[in-house]
Specification:
There is one protein chain. It is globular, with a radius of gyration of 23 Å. The strands form five sheets. The chain has a seven-stranded mixed sheet, sandwiched between helices. It has a six-stranded mixed sheet with strand order 10-9-8-11-12-20, sandwiched between helices. Helix content is 40%, strand content 21%. It contains 15 helices and 21 strands. Bound molecules: nicotinamide-adenine-dinucleotide (NAD). Nicotinamide-adenine-dinucleotide binds next to helix 7 and helix 8.
């Protein structure tokens, strides 16, 4: 049994003032595997005070000093990627390949931030004015459970690159990952208070961070509903915000696509991270004339997907993170059975799997006004929608409150780019489902505000100061 009793404030592991015990589950079995003692509002305030004390000196560090810190953080996390992956499998149920990728991503995000910082100039000249980019101050970083270690590291990496100090509020459901990551970050030997890690409830620690006058900015990844709450809470003190929220991403399969490669790609983009991914391509748009072939190939592609124990290297879909998430996805499958036609999958557990496992499910005869086409399900449940013309496909793709990511699959890249230019999405992936750690990441519309990663991500932690006058040169 894991017993997590400490949070991290001012460079030290401390016992929280809060005393609520929160159960941790293994989603593969549904069994309790430990407990974490949660921080409360008093702990949050201590962490904010430590970050505030650390800010004046840290904000004056040089670019080279911060690049060196980012390298140390990278090395410290890299040294324990196996344990981070292991914790991700145990408490989240991520399949081995995904957990391994996620742990490497956590380490690599420090190198991506270092590279961004190396190439960045904090001063520029605009007409006769000198513009200096200055760190914002103390930032609050709030992460979800679906990639907790990665989000802690990529948000912290950019905060440090910018010269901000941080209070991190990880998902309370990911405390084992947080424990390992915190030990790694501590080993990098940064000055006390530069980062503080306070695991607690969202409506306690998260809410306090989002309204505290000494916090200049919140960077949040999570649901659109909580993102709106944070935005409201931050308004009073005019916090800068970066919100990375939900999605209902379209995969447009154009009529010239080779379906034998396009369908497996669309299925893997839809089932990414066991379907618990904000970027999952959950609405697959196909030409009506090709529907019979699409259905046949989809059935074969989904039947080949292995749902199973996350430690089995052949597994591509693990369990849902929690009983609540399992029930939520089951409910959407029941809604889908009413609204549309089931192609494969359906209600209940896959044979022989009792944890929070879902049958990979695909519906067709879906129209874009249906609940399963409009709402983020966050599980391995996909919709096939058919279209007659390219214009109609683009209209369906854009007819959503979300706009995080879109996929265009075509044998003609020029045509795919033309379609991409008409899509309302922060990222459009043509014939691939890869990640680019230096390209901006974030959403249009209710998928969020602002961007993470690369220059756009760095500038989200900076405030421009214009210095005018004869001495400004
Ligand atoms: P969530 O919004 O419930 O929780 C996310 C974090 O916010 C947790 O740490 C939680 O404790 C905290 N929180 C909850 N209430 C809060 C409040 N009132 N004030 C401040 N913080 C609060 O999301 P989740 O269920 O953990 O994650 C799933 C959601 O995250 C999905 O909607 C998914 O699309 C989204 N997501 C988005 C991205 C992206 O980059 N756009 C990436 C991953 C996940």
């Amino acid at each position: 049994m894991h017993k997590i009793e400490h949070i991290y404030i001012n460079g030290t592991f401390v016992t929280p003032h809060g005393h609520e015990q929160f159960d941790l589950f293994n989603p593969t079995t549904g069994q309790i595997i430990g407990q974490v003692r949660l921080a409360d509002a008093e702990d949050t305030r201590s962490a904010i005070a430590a970050a505030k004390r650390a800010f004046p000196a840290f904000s004056r560090t040089t670019k080279q000093e911060r690049i060196a810190m980012l390298h140390r953080l990278h090395d410290a996390v890299l040294a324990r990627v196996d344990q981070i992956a292991d914790a991700t499998i145990e408490e989240y149920g991520a399949p081995l390949s995904r957990a391994t990728w996620g742990a490497r991503y956590a380490a690599d995000s420090f190198m991506s931030a270092a590279k961004t910082l190396e190439d960045y100039s904090f001063t520029r000249r605009i007409a006769t004015t000198s513009v200096v980019m200055e760190p914002l101050g103390v930032v609050g970083l709030i992460t979800p459970w679906n990639a907790n270690a990665g989000f802690i590291c990529n948000k912290l990496a950019m905060a440090i690159a910018a010269g901000c100090t941080a209070v991190i509020k990880p998902s309370e459901m990911s405390a084992i990952q947080t424990q390992v990551v915190t030990e790694c970050l501590h080993a990098a030997g940064l000055p006390p208070g530069v980062f503080n890690i306070v695991t607690g409830r969202g409506d306690v620690v998260g809410a306090d961070l989002s309204s505290h006058p000494d916090v200049a900015k919140i960077s949040f990844t999570g649901s659109t509903a909580v993102g709106k709450t944070i935005m409201r809470a931050g308004a009073e003190t005019m916090k800068r915000i970066t919100l990375e929220l939900g999605g209902k991403s379209p995969t447009l399969i154009l009529d010239d696509a080779d379906l034998r490669t396009a369908i497996p790609l669309a299925i893997s983009a839809g089932f990414a991270n066991s379907g618990q991914a904000c970027i999952a391509g959950t609405r697959i748009l196909v030409p009506e004339a090709h529907l019979p072939e699409v259905l046949e190939l989809t059935k074969a592609a989904v039947a080949a997907v292995k749902v199973g124990h996350p430690r089995d290297p052949g597994t591509t879909i693990g369990p849902m993170v929690s009983a609540k998430q399992y029930e939520r996805v089951q409910n959407y499958i029941r809604i889908g059975m009413q609204e549309a036609t089931l192609l494969i999958g359906g209600e209940g557990h896959p044979d022989g799997l009792d944890g929070y496992f879902i049958k990979p499910t695909v519906f067709f005869n879906v129209t874009n006004d249906m609940k399963i086409a409009r709402e983020e399900i966050f599980g391995p449940v996909l919709c096939i929608l058919s279209y007659r013309t390219e214009d109609e496909a683009i209209a369906i793709a854009n007819d959503t409150v979300y706009g995080l990511q879109a996929y265009v699959l075509s044998s003609d890249v020029k045509r795919a780019r033309a379609v991409a230019s008409r899509l309302e999405a922060g990222r459009v992936l043509i014939n691939n489902a890869q990640h680019d750690p230096l390209a901006p990441f974030g959403g249009f519309k209710q998928s969020g505000i602002g961007r993470e990663q690369g220059i756009f991500g760095l500038e989200a932690y900076l405030e421009p100061k214009a210095i005018l006058g004869v001495d400004a040169a």
